Structure formats: C-alpha cells, structure tokens
UniProtKB/TrEMBL annotation:
Transmembrane segments: none annotated. Residues 1-25 form the signal peptide. Residues 71-434 form the Solute-binding protein family domain. This is Peptide ABC transporter substrate-binding protein. It comes from the Bacteria.
Length: 512
C-alpha cells in the first residue's frame, strides 16, 4: 500500500512521529519498562521495586552501587568503622547540592534520617535500622552513626529509606512533595513529568557532580508483561522490566542476546491470612494447600524462565546461610498429594464439603497464569472451590496490608540486602510487612537471638531455626525462587547482571 506522507504538512507529520512512542529518541532518551504504577515517590515510604527503580536515579545515599551492584562512594567520599563495629563515620564530598542548586550538608542528612525512622513516617523498611542508637552531624561534612550492635551499615545505606529527603518541600507540600516541580533530590536525575498510569520522565540533574550520559529517562508503566513485550518488539522500549512466561527456547530464538536471564535474590509465595478463619486455626489445612501444589510443573510450564521450585522463604545464594529442608517437602509429588488429601480430610473438608477460598493477585499476565495453575491444582487434588480476584497494584497492596478481606494472596519479596533476615523479618509479629498476620513469640525470639549473636555462625543458626519454625507452621505456600528477566536492546551499554537486579540509569549508555 502506498504511503500518503505527501498529503501531510511536515510539522504535522513530525508531531505524529514524536507522539507515537514508536520512534526512539536516539541517544537522548532511555525508555525503560518499570512494571506497575509506583505507589509513591516518597523515598522513605517506598515499599516496592517500581518506586525504588526510579528513586535510585533521583537520589543518592551516603553509599551507592555501581552498575554491577558493588558498593561505591555516594554522598560520602569515605567511611570508617570503630574496632567494636558500633560507630561508623562518613566523610561527605565537598560541594554536595540538591537538584535545585542549594547546598546539602550533614545536618540535612541527619534530619532526613530522623524523619525516615520516626514512627509517624511508617517507613516499610525502618526495621533495617533497628540497631541505630543515634545519628549525629558533628560538623557539616561528617555523619556519625552509633549502633547498639555491630551492623554492616554501608550496604543498608543504598536503600531508598536512607536517601536524603528535602524537608522544606515535605513541610510545604506534605504528601504532595513528590510531584514534578516539588520533588527535590540529590541524584543524577530529577523528576520532570509524572503522567499517572503512563510514565514518569526524569531529566539530567545539572547540579550532580558527574553529568549522566543519557539526558532523559522515561519509566513506562508496564503492568502487563505481554503488552510490555509487544512494546519492546515495536521499538517503544530499550529495556523491559520482565519477560512474560513463554518457552525459553522460543524466546532465545526470537531475541538472542537481547534476552538477559540471571540469578536473583527473590522469593515468590502465596500468603495465607492468619487473622481470620478458615486458615487461622487450621495448620493442617494450610499444609494441605501447600502440599497440593506441584512446584515442578509451575516452574517448567507456567513460569518457565529458569525459576527454581521453592519449599522455603530464603532463596539460595546468600553467603553464610544454608536454608533448612523441611520434612514435609521430602518425597515425590504423588506422595505429597496423598498426604495433602489426608490432611484436608482431617481438617474437616471433602469433595462433598469443599473448602471455598479466594486467591487474590495484582493484575499481571504472569500472576494470572500462576493463579489459574494453583487454583486448578487445589481443585484437582483436594476438590477445593477456588475463586480468583485480580486488582490494580495500589488497590491490591492496600488490601493485602490491612488483611481484612484477603484469604490467599500473591506474596513475595526481592532482597533489599544479601541477608536471610531480610526475608524472615517479613513474618515478625510486629513487622510492617507481615501481610499474613503471623504471630509466634518463639519465631520473634529467634530473630532477636540472631541480632544479638556474637558470631556469624551463631547468627546463621538462629535464622535457620527461625525459618524452619515458620515453614513448620505453614504460614505461607512457597512456590519458586526468582530469576531476573529482561529484554535489553543492543544499543544499551552498561547493563550488568547482579543478584539484586539494580541498574541505575547513570551507569547506562545508548550507542548511536
């Protein structure tokens, strides 16, 4: 069919091309898929990967990470720790500035930390800093942390909760300090535009010490992985946030080296609401639901991109930690299913008197496929009646947090740090992210024992005992351990695999 471009004025044609999104902006703009709409851009209140990816570009902590995930100097040019591991001193770079050009000093860093850690902020990751006794600024160029126990503090200081928030904007605008024109950061980029359910645009921060190679970054809301894949194929995206479940051989044939799959410190499970019947008083029923799931089938035929079946919470690959192997996970799947049916009957259910349960998940093609598969297994093995409900991310997160209307729900965690405790703290009875409402004083005591341990071996032993106790209670249904999955266009340089799957835009380049 003949193209009718001559019928359009040049200016109209150019405008149409620029608005289409199908034309890459050369080396001037990086287009990244980013999953669901971020729930917030308040660094201290960021609970998920979608906001952390963006905040990592807008802010910089005392310590930063390079493109390979290695710790590097951030706001602090150097740091040192006392012999007992309880006092950390960070020396700031000279001439630090906010993205509005104002000077940034140690006093502002300390004030921001106080806001992050005060209970009124309700920061979801404040637990990482439970060991902090005081934070001081003895002079404008020094930040001093005094701890109640030794702690590998630098690796925590790369998290969004440790970013310096510009408090004058918080005081002036409250929760709306995160909007364009109001959000002041200190990183390589600054917020330019936020179009809800579409994209967030960042532009190069002219006051950052090193100009970012790419002038502009656009983070696209890509809640549906299949749609994201189509947008990548159409040229709308340089990098996808994930890859939808498809046969791996087919993906490799289609995309070759553009497909990037690597180990990832993350776990996926189904949470069980322990605040209300029928799951609260029924450990046998919870165990039956877990045993009825064929994890090998899920990882081979439903996810299918290198994920490993999971019978625990903490993923493999964490240094110095050997996860427990629960007794109920032993044997063949046929044996597990036979035990599941027996436990289901002991709990008072049968095909004539079936369990009726709702499985809730956030809107996403992979999550829908997984929910359908698990529901089919529960129906086939146990005779349970399963209803499915999907919700937009923000709605789902809110319902999961308050725990009143959920029964079984999509859970999971991506490591903040390379530490087994990062996963186990989710089930502490007072934890901000204890979505299931799991309460066990002995489990809490084991976490406290790990915190007070004199050696790394003692700490690992206490954490292993805590995980074993959690799994024996069947407070969740472990499903699989993640891999990171991205499609990356050939012109993107500097995209390096790392176990935490963090890729700051300032370490990426676009080849012309």
């Amino acid at each position: 069919m003949r193209m009718l471009t001559r019928a359009l004025p040049t200016g109209v044609l150019l405008a149409a091309l620029l608005c289409s999104g199908a034309v890459m902006a050369g080396a001037e703009r990086l287009d990244r898929g980013n999953g669901p709409e971020p729930s917030t851009l308040d660094a201290h209140r960021c609970p998920e990967v979608a906001c952390a990816n963006i905040l990592r570009d807008i802010y910089e902590g005392l310590v930063a990470e390079d493109g390979a995930g290695r710790l590097i100097p951030g706001m602090a040019e150097s740091w040192e720790v006392s012999a007992d591991g309880r006092t950390w001193t960070f020396r700031l770079r000279k001439d630090l500035r906010w993205s509005n050009g104002e000077p940034l000093d140690a006093g502002q860093v300390v004030a921001s930390f106080r806001r992050a850690l005060e209970p009124a902020t309700a920061a979801p990751h404040a637990h990482h800093f439970d060991a902090v006794r005081t934070i001081e600024a003895p002079d404008p160029g020094t930040v001093l942390f005094r701890l109640q126990r030794s702690l590998d503090l630098p690796r925590l200081l790369v998290l969004p909760i440790a970013y310096p928030v510009y408090l004058p904007a918080v005081d002036a605008f409250g929760a709306r300090h995160t909007r364009p024109g109001r959000l002041i950061g200190n990183g390589a980029y600054r917020l330019k535009e936020w179009l809800p359910q579409a994209h967030i645009v960042l532009e190069r921060n002219p006051h950052f010490r090193e100009p970012a190679p790419i002038p502009e970054v656009r983070f696209h809301v890509t809640e549906d992985a299949a749609s994201e894949l189509r947008r990548f194929e159409a040229g709308d995206l340089h990098i996808t946030e994930t890859v939808p479940p498809q046969p791996l051989a087919s993906l490799r044939e289609r995309f070759g080296g553009q497909l990037r799959i690597s180990p990832y410190l993350g776990s996926f499970w189904l949470g069980l609401n322990l605040r209300r019947p029928p799951l609260r008083e029924q450990p046998l029923l919870r165990e039956a639901l877990s045993l009825a799931v064929d994890r090998d089938v899920l990882t081979r035929h439903v996810t299918g991109l290198g994920e490993a079946p999971a019978f625990g919470v903490v993923p493999p690959g964490i240094a110095g930690y050997e996860p427990p192997s629960p007794e109920w996970a032993q044997g063949t799947q046929a044996e597990r299913e036979a035990r599941a049916r027996a436990l289901y009957a002991q709990a008072g259910y049968s095909r004539e008197r079936p369990l009726q349960i709702e499985l809730r998940y956030n809107t996403s093609t992979p999550h829908r496929r997984l929910a359908l598969a698990v529901a089919a297994m529960w129906r086939e093995v146990l005779g349970a009646r399963v209803s499915l409900r999907n919700e937009e991310w923000k709605v789902f997160v809110g319902n999961r947090r308050q725990g009143l209307i959920t029964q079984a729900f999509r859970g999971g965690w991506i490591a903040d740090v390379d530490d087994a405790r990062d996963f186990l703290q989710l089930f502490h009875s007072e934890g901000a992210n204890n979505w299931s409402g799991y309460v066990d004083p002995e489990f809490d005591a084991l976490l406290a024992q790990a915190d007070a341990a004199a050696t790394l071996e003692q700490r690992a032993g206490a954490l292993r005992a805590a995980e074993a106790r959690l799994l024996q209670a069947h407070a969740l249904v472990p499903l699989y351990f993640y891999t990171s999955k991205h499609l990356v266009r050939p012109e993107v340089e500097g995209f390096e695999a790392n176990p935490l799957d963090r890729h700051p835009s300032r370490f990426l380049r676009l080849r012309d």
